[in-house]
Amino acid sequence: MNLVIVESPAKAKTIRKFLGRSYQVKASMGHLVDLPKSQLGVDLENNFQPKYITIRGKGKVLQELKDTARKANKVFLASDLDREGEAISWHLGNSLGITNKEPCRVVFNEITKDAIKKAFTHPRNLDLNRVYAQQARRILDRLVGYMISPLLWEKVQKGLSAGRVQSVALRLICDREEEIKAFVVEEYWTIEAKFSAQGAEIPVKAKFFGRTGSRMTFSREEEVNKILHELKGRDYLVHRVQVKERRRNPAPPFITSTLQQEASRRLGFSAKRTMMVAQQLYEGLEFGEKKESTGLITYLRTDATRVSPVSQEEARNYIEEHFGKGYLPEKAPHYVGKKGAQDAHEAIRPTSVLRNPVSLKKYLSRDQSRLYRLIWDRFVASQMAPATLEQVRVDIKGGEYIFKASGSTIKFPGFLALLKDDRVVNPEEVLPPLKEETELELLALEPIQHFTQPPGRYSEASLVKAMESKGIGRPSTYAPTIETLKGRGYVVREEKVFKPTELGFVVVDLLKNFFPEIIDVDFTARLEDRLDKIEGGEIPWLDVIRDFYAPFQQRLQVASEEMQKVKLEEETGEICPQCSRKLLKKFGRYGSFHACSGFPECRFTKQPQAETGVKCPMCDGEIVERRSKKGRLFYGCNNYPKCSFVSWDKPLERACPQCGAFLVEKKGYRSSPPSVRCSNKDCDYRETAAVKKSRKK
């Protein structure tokens, strides 16, 4: 009997069916050995040697594995194929007395019958360079977390933490908020026009450019009015028509970061939710009449865009059969990954394109089905021919003034036949056939007032994109980093974007002053690069730790002596309704709140209530902003609990012109604008909220 050890029971269940009775498959339930939680766990006087212990509560699992291993003919370590998985196998090998003299490590990119059987015919030795890279990362994270966090507890408040990756991610969010605060709004105007051509069914929509060869901009309404006066009554004709053909290539298959970004954009998934569902698809699910169990996607923590020739050939056959030979590129495409990507891995793809999303839908949960379709569509589209677009640019002349119009049409859909993308061709920009010197009739001129917009706050998708592009963290760290920032109360998520709390700003400011390297984006990226070099066998892991620790220790000494205590509590001027002591403003994971100064004897708390200026429709109270236990913003009456009025939508001061009930602002879905609706469910009154101020001429 051979013993196979994997991380999870779900993975063990799937693999067990492929290997047969001569293999016993057990799960380690993740890491069994790690640094102790109660102490630093790194011997600073002895070359930073880690002090590994059995994780509390895992002793029984480890003992069971030891007992089974003693009876086994051979033990195979089959944890995940990344650094973390290699480290799990290394710790298991040490605990079970397995030497690295003979091959015992089995890795596979997908949990399918063929992949598993092939992997077990080619076991390898443990990759110690990969283990050392993980160990170096773990020690670096421990040094930062366990040496800076106590300072924050002492100088700010209990329960805070600093991290090598999390603190830099927090800085990105705080720096963006500072940019927004410093942004100066400026007014500007544009002019849009509609023209008609004889015999054309649709109008030509164009934007004012300026005089011939010179663009004109307007910062005040008076400037626009002057030009409008000159534009009226002129004769207009098509001055120039440029037709260009361009190709639109499909995007490469997903890597971890792009999967998280697209799942956020298309499905509204958080990074954590995306990874949880993807893990289920990877480890294997039962489907079909025979309840077969197999992994549906390849390994989900990857930064490589490479795909295997076998999967490409299968995809090409599928495309030819279902779309036609014209939808195949001459050669299977090769996508170049970013610098430093672990090319031994593959991109995230379905384990077989023959298992299309429609055939699996009834066997998967809603989340599983939607994410699988996203992955399947992206992979198949990545193997299809480019789309061919015809792009038309038109200059319309009226005397010395020029208007410009542009539009695109799809000549050959290519991959767009599968992967519909509204961003490729905007129906609003379709132009009728036009020839040069064609006379046009001016139908309307519309001056539009705009205001420059500050940079947007980070959403989960854009934060992951920024972390990836700047080299902060790795595929396995994006989701847990975001969860830590929310859990510590450093940021709150409002309207799907992150806003730093006062606590987050305090922590970032302290780290900027005393640990500038720790919170420096470039320094963190260089450190990640050095970890990659450890994995590649280019530099010893101890050199990386030593180079980091010497200046870090000096910073710690200065910080412990000079960092001043930050007082976050403020008196509110209010009295506790339960014990008549003072109420204090404090900070928690969802921002500020009011709490009794008599804590812990008195545990009264309440959320500060921002007024909306709207009267409660159920009593004489005022509508105020409130937060749910999960931090979600909603609106309720300030007379709660006497009055039970609540609303997820923001109440407005205006009354419905149809029924007299109060109006609410309904948030737009994805890219659609917000709308104003009646709060009365029986009333159908609705209006689109103004997103620009325009004036017809």
3D structure, described in words:
The chain has 697 residues and is of the alpha+beta class. It folds into 5 domains: 2-126, Rossmann fold (3-Layer(aba) Sandwich), CATH 3.40.50; 135-183 and 462-562, Topoisomerase I, domain 2; 187-249 and 388-451, Topoisomerase I, domain 3 (Distorted Sandwich), CATH 2.70.20.10; 256-382, Topoisomerase I, domain 4 (Orthogonal Bundle), CATH 1.10.290; 569-608, no CATH class. It is built from 17 helices and 31 strands. The strands form 9 sheets. It has a 6-stranded antiparallel β-barrel. It has a 4-stranded antiparallel β-sheet with strand order 19-20-21-22, with no helix packed on it. Strands 23-24-25-26 form a 4-stranded antiparallel β-sheet, with no helix packed on it. Helix 3 (83-96) crosses helix 5. The longest helix has 28 residues, at 128-155. The N and C termini lie far apart (86 Å).
Task: Quickly describe the structure.
This protein is of the alpha+beta class. The protein folds into 5 domains: 2-126, 3-Layer(aba) Sandwich (Rossmann fold); 135-183 and 462-562, Topoisomerase I, domain 2, CATH 1.10.460.10; 187-249 and 388-451, Distorted Sandwich (Topoisomerase I, domain 3), CATH 2.70.20; 256-382, Topoisomerase I, domain 4, CATH 1.10.290.10; 569-608, no CATH class. Helix 3 packs across helix 5, helix 5 (128-155) packs antiparallel against helix 16 (521-535) and helix 8 packs antiparallel against helix 13 (460-469).
